[in-house]
Amino acid sequence: MAPASVGWFARLPGETSGIRPHLDAVGRRQEGATMWIALDRADRGNGCLHYAKGTHRRNLPARVGLPGFSAESEEAVAVEVEPGDATIHSSLTVHWSEANRSRRSRQAITYFYWAASSAGGTDG
Ligand SMILES: O=C(O)CCC(=O)C(=O)O
Fold this sequence. Notes:
The protein has strands at 2-11, 32-38, 49-52, 76-79, 86-90, 95-97, 106-114. By secondary structure, it is mainly beta. It has one domain: Jelly Rolls, CATH 2.60.120. The protein has a 4-stranded antiparallel sheet, with no helix packed on it. A 3-stranded antiparallel sheet has the order 4-3-6, with no helix packed on it.
């Protein structure tokens, strides 16, 4: 795996939208993995991350705002975690976060990696 980038995602209290369904391989469908580490408790009330089960096996377009996914989708999995918990997902797994309807913050740090075997995207 080759490190690609790091992100800080904050769902602020009262925020009315989250991040729309997407793959992390946006623009190139490159294989990789993302480690998402919770800084706060994350749950359905404060905009936790959601995964769409099995989507890494589908040939979905690599863009933000994929239609047909929501917390009510059959394949949706709400990622409810405690501070310090880490989850890892494929760069090809559809995921998103929802609005933060609570008064609690929901922050996370993410580390993005590309697979060494995946062509055309790393510097080294
Ligand atoms: O934490 C979020 O709200 C979104 C995270 C995300 O899209 C990602 O880790 O790729």
